[in-house]
């Protein structure tokens, strides 16, 4: 039985989030520049998107550029931005053909104008697609997300649209950039680092983590299957006892 057949189609995560890490180390191992690692990561992105859509995952969120990544050398940042533009330009038709909708989360106003334009167009072209939503986290951080949510909520309270005493977890979530999406059930991180790196802090409250030592450019469909199979073997207790879960 191949790995894909071992995935239980009846127990799929609706939302998978991925911290795509290790491009720089991958390039270094090959004696190349960091940007070579980023370029080589496109295949891994394509494979992961395809595999998730084929399985029937509803949301796939990829951490592509964090708020903190702006502090990298200017040359690396601009190369990443150019790569983003050229990849979106190349891949939008395929996304559309595969009925995949593109969305972004993050402070996208801080991206270069060319990136914003390319993203706007791709989001518009794919907006009615229904098979899967691919969410790119760009200039994203969990603290940014919670802060912008608090700011917009405070404005609504000031306007009298919302009463402070009515704020609940459910109503607060509607101000987060992920409003309307289920929380990720599974988080995959490559390159072995055991940290969240300011990703979806609120949304990962009860997410199952799958960390692999594989560097992101080497990630393929079978590795996503492995992550999902591992997820399907976990007991998700949400604070209850094991006994309580047996119906
Ligand atoms: C992930 O790979 C890509 C981005 C953060 C943009 P890295 O560039 O972080 O690669 P490492 O972690 O230095 O190997
Ligand atoms: C996390 O990777 C951000 C992305 C994958 C976009 P980093 O490489 O920036 O994380 P740290 O600095 O190792 O925590
Ligand atoms: Mg890294």
What does this structure look like?
- This protein is α/β, with parallel strands linked by helices.
- The protein has one domain (12-141, 184-234): Decaprenyl diphosphate synthase-like (Undecaprenyl pyrophosphate synthetase), CATH 3.40.1180.
- Helices cover 44% and strands 15% of the residues.
- The protein has ten helices and six strands.
- It has a six-stranded parallel beta sheet with strand order 3-4-2-1-5-6, with helices on both faces.
- Helix 6 (113-125) links the parallel strand 3 (100-105) and strand 4 (132-140).
- The two termini are 30 Å apart.
- The model has no long low-confidence stretch (mean pLDDT 98).
- It binds 3-methylbut-3-enyl trihydrogen diphosphate (IPE) (2 copies) and magnesium ion.
- One 3-methylbut-3-enyl trihydrogen diphosphate (IPE) binds at residues 19-21, 63-66, 68-69, 193, 195, 197.
- One 3-methylbut-3-enyl trihydrogen diphosphate is lined by residues 20-25, 65, 69, 80, 191, 216.
């Amino acid at each position: 039985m191949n790995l894909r057949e071992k995935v239980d189609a009846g127990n799929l995560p609706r939302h998978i989030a991925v911290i795509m890490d290790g491009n720089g180390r991958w390039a270094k191992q090959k004696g190349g520049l960091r940007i070579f690692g980023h370029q080589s990561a496109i295949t891994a992105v394509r494979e992961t998107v395809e595999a998730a859509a084929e399985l029937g995952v509803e949301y796939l969120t990829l951490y592509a550029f964090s708020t903190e990544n702006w502090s990298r050398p200017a040359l690396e940042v601009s190369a990443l931005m150019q790569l983003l533009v050229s990849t979106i330009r190349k891949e939008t038709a395929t996304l559309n053909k595969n009925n995949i909708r593109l969305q972004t989360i993050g402070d996208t106003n801080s991206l270069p104008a060319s990136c914003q334009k390319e993203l706007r167009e791709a989001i518009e072209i794919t907006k009615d697609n229904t098979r899967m939503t691919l969410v790119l986290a760009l200039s994203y951080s969990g603290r940014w997300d919670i802060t912008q949510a608090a700011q917009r909520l405070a404005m609504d309270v000031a306007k009298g649209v919302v009463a402070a005493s009515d704020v609940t977890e459910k109503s607060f979530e509607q101000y987060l950039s992920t409003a309307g999406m289920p929380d990720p059930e599974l988080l995959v991180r490559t390159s072995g680092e055991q940290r969240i790196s300011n990703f979806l802090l609120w949304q990962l409250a009860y997410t199952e983590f799958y960390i692999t030592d594989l560097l992101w450019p080497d990630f393929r469909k079978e590795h996503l299957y492995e992550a999902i199979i591992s997820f399907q073997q976990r007991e998700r207790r949400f604070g209850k006892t094991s006994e309580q879960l047996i119906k």
